[in-house]
């Protein structure tokens, strides 16, 4: 074998799995239930060349208790979180012990790359992968290296984090699409806004004009007294042209936030699928999908990073214990069932998105909401959360959902 493990794609999922598999403190550790133990794996991480196959710079956000494994590259964290309703109502809380954290993808890439460089068993390759062919004892990875040379690697296990060419059939598929500006206030101008509160992040601000179908909201993550990431987000069936996002951001920053004069230092833009599709994690005896293509994105929110960490830790632990290192389900069935009902209710218009989410934050403690979004609530807490939603429309949706066929996405 050329490698024990080949990871295709160097986004959040691929980088996270490479990080976990090359942990020098965990190599060779035997667990209580393990029948055998594998030595530290030889890992090859294959990154796409610069161009359309390589993901652009991204911001990944998640909540966590205390310090985590990636504290070194956390760009900013917030202990106070707020949600704003359409009429300007504010629900703010310190959801101790949870903190909301932000990581920039370039910093995370450099952090993981430093570990791979230090490891004698890790290698990072730039190539375009064309085929994954099962063999008697593993997988043949075929592709093209820069300059047109051919790549051919034999691997024991392959983890593919590349985006799927199309989403699996689903009863409901919406898109979370967004564009953000990293803004710097011009505090010297007469129309300058009061400074941002660096300790408080606004997760959802529903004072934005609401579309006919779906919902929209603003999103403000202060990076300092005069700097912040300000985003405009929609949940709907189709994304907008870039100029439409910029128009929405101009309205949000000037008419709602009243920021006054500012410079746009950088931008980010993306599309996240929100779907009750069933994602296939194992696609061969030795080939698995991870990350968004393996179902790690939470259907109700689009959050992915925390689930990717759970998935990558489990794979690494299974590998070391001698078990088949298959990625586990990233989300509990109960969580996915509740998400499917919410998506369907939004898509049919039975509930209005802004009212739905603000109602939840009005009736539920922020700490409980964060635990729910992370899949850590009990059955009793989930039932209480269900009764905090518009009960009759949601019950109608529950009754009709099993009768709906799964169809290919309309996009």
From TrEMBL:
It comes from the Bacteria. Gene3D superfamilies: FAD/NAD(P)-binding domain. SUPFAM superfamilies: FAD/NAD(P)-binding domain. InterPro entries: FAD/NAD-bd_sf (IPR036188). This is Lycopene cyclase. It comes from Streptomyces parvus.
């Amino acid at each position: 074998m050329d490698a024990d493990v080949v990871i295709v794609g160097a986004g959040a999922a691929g980088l996270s799995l490479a990080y976990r598999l090359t942990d020098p403190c965990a190599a060779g550790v035997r667990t209580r239930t393990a029948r055998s133990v594998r030595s530290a794996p030889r890992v090859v991480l294959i990154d796409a060349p610069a161009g359309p196959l390589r993901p652009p710079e991204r911001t990944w956000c998640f909540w966590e208790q205390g310090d985590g494994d990636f504290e070194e590259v956390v760009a900013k964290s917030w202990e106070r979180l707020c949600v704003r309703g359409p009429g300007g109502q504010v629900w703010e809380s310190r959801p101790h012990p949870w903190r909301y954290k932000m990581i920039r993808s370039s910093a995370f890439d450099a952090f993981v790359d430093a570990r791979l460089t230090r490891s004698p068993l890790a290698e990072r390759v730039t190539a375009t992968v064309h085929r994954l062919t099962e063999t008697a004892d593993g997988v043949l990875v075929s592709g093209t290296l820069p300059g047109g040379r051919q790549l051919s690697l034999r691997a024991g296990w392959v983890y593919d984090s590349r985006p799927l060419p199309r989403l699996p059939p689903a009863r409901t598929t919406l898109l979370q699409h967004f564009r953000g500006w990293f803004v710097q206030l011009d505090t010297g101008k007469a129309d300058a806004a009061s400074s941002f509160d660096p300790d408080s992040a606004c997760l959802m601000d529903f004072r934005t004009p609401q579309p006919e179908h779906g919902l929209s909201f603003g999103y403000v993550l202060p990076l300092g007294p005069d700097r912040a990431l300000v985003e405009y987000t929609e949940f709907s069936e189709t994304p907008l042209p870039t100029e439409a996002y910029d128009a929405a951001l101009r309205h949000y920053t000037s008419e709602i936030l009243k920021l006054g004069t500012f410079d746009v230092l950088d931008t980010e833009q993306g599309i996240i699928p929100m779907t009750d599709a069933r994602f296939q994690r194992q696609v061969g005896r030795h080939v698995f999908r991870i990350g968004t293509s393996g179902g790690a994105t939470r259907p109700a929110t689009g959050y992915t990073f925390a689930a990717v960490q759970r998935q990558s830790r489990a794979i690494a632990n299974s590998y070391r214990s001698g078990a088949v290192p298959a990625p586990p389900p990233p989300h509990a069935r109960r969580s996915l069932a509740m998400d499917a009902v919410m998506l369907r209710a939004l898509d049919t218009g039975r509930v209005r998105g802004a009212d739905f989410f603000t109602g939840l934050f009005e009736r539920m403690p922020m700490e409980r909401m964060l635990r729910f979004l992370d899949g850590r609530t009990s059955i009793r807490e989930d039932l209480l959360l269900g009764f905090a939603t518009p009960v009759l429309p949601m019950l109608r949706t529950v009754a009709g959902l099993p009768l709906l066929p799964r169809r290919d996405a309309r996009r």
